[in-house]
Amino acid sequence: MTFARLAWYFQKLEETASRNLMTEVLADLFKEAEPEEIDKICYLAQGRVVPLFVPLEFGMADKMVIKAISRGFGAEETEVVRIFREEGDLGKTAERLFGLRSACRLSESSDASVPAPRTKNGAGLGIRPEPVGSGSNEDIASRQASPPCLSRALSVAEVFEILNKVAHSSGGGSVEQKIGLLGDLFNAVDSLSARYLARIPLGKLRLGFSDMTILDALSWMLGEGKRVRPLIEKAYNVRPDLGFIARAIKLGGVGEVGEIGPKPGTPILMARAERLSSGQEIIEKIGKCAVEPKIDGFRLAVHIEESRITLFSRNMEDMTPMFPDLVEGIRKQVMAKEAILEGEAIAYDTQTGEYLPFQETVQRKRKYDIEQMAQSVPLKLICFDCLYVDGKNLIHEGYLERRKYLENIIKTGETLIVNEMKIVDDPQELEKMFQDAISRGLEGIFAKRLDGVYQAGARGWNWIKYKRSYQGKLEDTIDAVVMGYDYGQGKRAGFGIGDFLIGVYDQKTDTFKTIAKIGTGLTDEEWRNLKVQSSKFKVQSKPARYDADKGMECNVWVAPAMVVVIRADEITRSPVHTAGRVGNNPGFALRFPRLIDFRDDKAPEDATSVKEIEEMYQLQGKKKVETA
After folding, report:
1. How many other C-beta atoms are found inside a 10 Å radius of the C-beta of residue 480?
2. In terms of Cα–Cα distance, which of 608, 607, 614 is closest to 628?
């Protein structure tokens, strides 16, 4: 497949507001792709050359891409900057400069003696604007309906290889090398390709679809509609590498992904728990169970591959460089050549041994002064699950079997601790354990089904969390996605933001539904910070995955990327919000919501779900209502 053809598909996706249509476009793209290039297409569609969990970035900001565009099209940097200011998008800037260069070449070949006029499009370049509307009506219609076709168009594989070199270029002279490689690509592609070629290194493709849309499209590609989507998603949850999954399906059909298991070094999407509010409810739901304290720290997955150790966060970020003390402890205490473990990293007081609040643990999440902070805020890793050991896949084993492996491979030491556990079948005993955990400053407890398998990437009744905040009014926080914001008035006009819209995730529809618009409760500094952070993800129109009423329209929409922690007094019903709305039943809303923090360790799809909001609403003592 040519890159020009891929760019044409990207344009169709960019112009599509319907998620269902996006699925069909992607399915057509995947049908056309060859097995050896479908993985590359998946990565490029994510604005990358590697899976999301591999810490390899292009390392190119606007200024570097501007230089590459200037070099590729032979334009002055000042002119590139001028057009960029007009367009607000370097992709459209590159596309426009291609047209100007083409017009210049056409002018020189047809009448080199006539000086080019200085128009708005040609100002500063001394070139003619590109001819518009030339050719017959049939020719114009054909160009609009069909993808571009070049006599020597670069293939997807060729462009991918060069972009791969750009991403891997490092050290002395790497800046010039990146600019040179990208500039040469601009000089070799067509106008539409230039648009997306500029956006890929900047991570600003924003085509509007999610990983889940791609999984749907792979099912559609096989002609199965969404029938085999659950099988594909199950494999993806264990091996969340879209390129790997797509290539496997292209080569061997859906049967090929049925055998996919864990691989050390590739993160597994973490299992999540349901919630209940009493020991009685828990025992009635799952019977005799294992109870563990719920630790309030950083949830980490430990991947051991011989001498290599990688620590992944819940959103698949490689956290290894931040925690050298944990890495050293793992080397000393884990007795396995290959393993995948899970645990909570939490700070502790070296004098008393007591665990410290999350606010102190969070200080360890940093890129600088790591060794110094490791000395002043040491961590312990409280391990609670084992998913793989020396070639054995444990995901489908019951909890007690996984626990045996965990206890067998971790030897006593100072850094790693196997979490406490007690098997109970008495609700009163479970309540005593809950109260004991609270008295020690912990969040609550986990109750785990004894024969429960590990449900990668899913929420299920194999794990149940019971927290202090589930005992009455809404004391628990909500993780919400920032969907957009409005311009400020008065003093906030200087901030450029006056209120912001938040939503929660609907797993059934893979959409984000509104639950509150927040305009109070932030300090001046918090407003400024929110504006800076959200502006990084600004998009031209409402994303296709956003379900919002007209009354909740925003001056500026942002792509689903920012997760914030929100505290509210209560969950209420509201006709203006879409979270949980079904027919004439109103949606959910937050009463007196306020921003508490940012959660950059969570992906938008890991935000609080509509289903969880309904459960939290029920725990307030509200009567049950029909929800989606």
Report:
1. 32
2. 614
Catalytic site positions: 294
**Residue 42 in contact with residue 207, Cβ under 8 Å?**
no
Q: Mapping DSSP to helix (H, G, I), strand (E, B) and coil, where does residue 390 land?
A: coil
Placement of tokens 């020991």 in the chain: 279
Q: Which of 157, 174, 202 represents a domain boundary (last residue)? A: 202
What is the structure's pLDDT at 474? 60
pLDDT, position 146: 42
Is 523 part of a structural domain of the chain?
A: yes
H and E: helices and strands count for the chain: 21, 21
Confirm if 334 and 373 have CB atoms less than 8 A apart: no
Distances (CA, A) of 248 to 50, 220, 235, 265, 375: 16, 15, 11, 19, 45
3-class state of residue 382 by DSSP: strand
Specify whether 436 is located in the same domain as 485: no
In a domain, 231, yes or no: yes
The 10s digit of each residue's pLDDT in 203-232 is 888 888 889 999 999 999 998 888 999 999
Distance CA 593, CA 81 (A): 41
Q: How many CB atoms lie within 10 A of CB 396?
A: 10
Q: How crowded is residue 410: how many other Cβ atoms within 10 Å of its Cβ?
A: 22
- pLDDT (tens digit per residue) in 138-187: 443 333 444 444 435 899 999 999 999 999 999 999 999 999 999 999 99
Number of domains making up the chain: 4
Average pLDDT over residues 451-478: 81
Residue 260 phi, psi (nearest 5): -70, 130
